Amino acid sequence: MVLSVLGTTLNCAAVLAEIAGASGTNVDAVVSEGVSGTITLLGGLAFFVGLILFGIATMRAGVLPRWAGPLLILGDVVFAAGTFAGSASLIVEVLGALITCAAFVWLGLALLSTSDAPLQRRARVS
């Protein structure tokens, strides 16, 4: 989770530059070169790896819905595949974002629906 938050924080600068680019300003030099390009690349990789690790941890812990973990991983991989999708990149990225969003909504609803009592796990019998 920490790696995902770090990646998200590093990507904020790139997102703001992309928003500026939507107004017609040429931002390719800012986002793809020098220190900014390195931060954008490292932020994206940190977010990608962190979200996959968070999905695995969600599956293994068994506290939250287990199927939300694979949904997080699938959404992350589909979103990253948008980088290599060429002209369909926008569609693939939006699809990946929707899958990831669905997983986060599912996890959030599961957290909101729990009672204030501490979670009790069944003891493992060997």
Write the topology of this structure.
Elements: H1 2-22, H2 28-32, H3 34-61, H4 68-81, H5 89-113
Helix pairs in contact: 1-3, 3-4, 4-5
Structural description of this entry:
The protein is an all-alpha fold and 126 residues long. The protein folds into two domains: 49 residues, no CATH class; 53 residues. Helix content is 74%, strand content 0%. It has five helices and no strands. Helix 3 runs antiparallel to helix 4 and helix 4 packs antiparallel against helix 5. It starts with a helix and ends in a 13-residue tail after the last helix. The mean pLDDT is 79.
Give a brief outline of the structure.
The chain is mainly alpha-helical and 126 residues long.
What are its keywords?
5 helices; single chain; mainly alpha; 126 residues; 2 domains
Beta-sheet strand percentage?
under 5%
Give the rounded overall mean pLDDT.
Answer: 79
Q: Let me know the largest β-sheet.
A: none
What order do the helices and strands follow? HHHHH
Helix content: over 70%
Task: Please work out how many helical segments DSSP would assign.
Answer: 5
Distance between the termini: 31 Å
Q: Which residue ranges are poorly predicted, with pLDDT under 50 across at least 5 consecutive positions?
A: none
Tell me, briefly, the overall form: elongated
Radius of gyration: 18 Å
| Whole-number tally of structural domains | 2
- Quickly give the structural class: mainly alpha
- How many β strands by DSSP? 0
